[in-house]
Amino acid sequence: MNFAIAIHGGAGTILKSSMTAEMQTAYEKGLQDALDAGYKVVEDGGSSVDAVAAAVASLEDCPLFNAGKGAVFNHIGGHEMDAAIMNGATKEAGAVAGVSNIKNPVLLAKEVMLHSGHVMLSSEGAEEFAKQQHLEFADDAYFYNQLRYEQWQEALKTDTVQLDHSDKKFGTVGAVALDIHGNLAAATSTGGMTNKQFGRIGDSPIIGAGTYANSNTCAISCTGHGELFIRSVVAYDISCLIEYKGLSLQEACNIVVHDKLVKIGGEGGLIAIDKLGNICLPFNSEGMYRGYRKNDGSASIKIYKD
Ligand code: ASP
Question: What is the value of pTM for the model shown?
Answer without folding.
Answer: 0.94
